[in-house]
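A quick aside before the break. I want you to see a complete sequence-to-structure record at least once, exactly as it would be stored in a machine-readable document. Don't worry about memorizing anything.
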Amino acid sequence: MLEAHGLMAQIFKVINQTLADRGLFLKAGTIVDASLIAAPISTKNQDKARDPEMHSSKKGNQWFFGSKFHIGVDSETGLVHTLKVTSGNVSDIAEAASLLHREEQFVHGDAGIRPVWPFSQDCQCPARGCLLTS
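That is the input. The structure line, written in tokens, reads:
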């Protein structure tokens, strides 16, 4: 119901604004990461079909079927400031820029976002060109 009416994004935005108003987001840096969330691949259900929003993705030498959470986390507090949910086949690179709030002094991320750095020239993030991998 929340997703059907677009309320999740609105609730998340209000929570983040409340935390920011109270000074809980320091905005010095962002940790960017993604996680695969498995979904059943079986077609033995009422519709005799797989969920059309789920797709296959390869991580290492193993295949997964499902969706992916892409998150941007405040490096000081550990609070999530950005969350995107996509199908499993969307790369970390495709969502990396959308996870930043553009006030970062640095960004931490793994090799999954390295090829996208630095971001496009219209990015106003002072951290442009500075990526620390972990």
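Two observations worth writing down. Residues 36 and 68 are 4 Å apart (CA to CA). Residues 120-124, 128-134 have pLDDT under 50 and may be disordered. We'll return to this after the break.
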